[in-house]
Write a structure and sequence with these properties.
Blueprint (H helix, E strand, L loop, with lengths): L1 E5 L6 E5 L11 H10 L2 H8 L12 H13 L15 H7 L7 H9 L3 H17 L8 E7 L2 E2 L8 E2 L9 E3 L2 E5 L4 E6 L11 H10 L7 E6 L11 E3 L7
Parallel strand pairs: 3-9
Antiparallel strand pairs: 1-2, 3-7, 4-6, 5-6, 7-8, 9-10
């Protein structure tokens, strides 16, 4: 069954058709979902997720975590935005999920986490991701940089500080370590908005290097004068670095 209508502007003909099939505007996510399946994402998350529910009616916490991840990739910026995917049966079929959690279910999952549980889950997941990186004979470039995220509402660590986009707005000031050739975030600190660019960078770099199998993976560390442990130069070789 179809219906022909005329547009208000331009007077073009548009044909509307009905279909009983499930359709989705998020078909592009199928590429990312196929990637997750290929790398064994579900097995790793199920193995290391510290939350286990006993109720027979509860949604598997690993699936709830996956729903949150997919929502973020789809553009969600708040927990409430995850509800946009709840009615998308085609997307649920691609994910292999019979039920998609509500934003309250996702929020309640994260409320169960303690600091120890966060570390216990993400450290092995991070090691798994690093283990998938291909070794490079010439080594990787480790880039250190900071950025600014403006925030709205009341969130932990939100302070007024340097914010070029929204002067005077509360923000976070993260510090990131990225393997340049792999576009891989090796380490990150979510710092308060009133933190200066280079604060704590030496300890941050020590933590980042511990995440690598060997220091030989890094051929050079690159950073600007704001986040460099040696502000006298912007690029320095890893052979000059010691943890003592």
């Amino acid at each position: 069954m179809h219906r022909e209508i005329t547009t208000v502007w331009g007077e073009k003909k548009v044909i509307l058709r009905e279909t009983p099939r499930a359709v989705t505007p998020f078909g592009g996510l199928s590429v990312f979902i196929a990637f997750l399946q290929r790398i064994g994402f579900s097995r790793q998350v199920s193995e290391h997720l510290p939350v286990h529910l006993k109720s027979p009616n509860a949604i598997d916490p690993a699936q709830t975590y996956t729903a949150f991840l997919i929502s973020v990739v789809a553009g969600a910026r708040r927990f409430a935005h995850t509800s946009l995917l709840r009615a998308d049966q085609a997307l649920h079929a691609v994910l292999g999920m019979k039920r998609f959690p509500t934003d309250g279910t996702i929020r309640n999952l994260f409320k169960r986490f303690t600091q120890g549980m966060v570390v216990g889950m993400y450290e092995p997941l991070w090691a798994w991701q690093v283990g998938r990186l291909p070794p490079r004979t010439q080594g990787y470039s480790l880039d250190l940089d900071s950025t600014v995220f403006e925030r709205y509402g009341k969130q932990e660590g939100v302070k007024r500080g340097y914010n070029p986009r929204k002067p005077g707005r509360g923000s976070h000031h993260p510090l990131l370590a990225v393997l340049g050739e792999a576009y891989f975030i090796l380490h990150g600190w979510l710092r308060s908005g009133n933190t200066t660019a280079g604060r704590g960078v030496v300890e941050f770099l020590k933590e980042a290097l511990v995440k690598l199998p060997r220091l030989e993976w890094i051929r050079v560390v690159r950073a600007d004068s704001g986040s460099s442990p040696r502000t006298c130069c912007n690029t320095w070789r890893i052979s000059s670095y010691t943890t003592s």
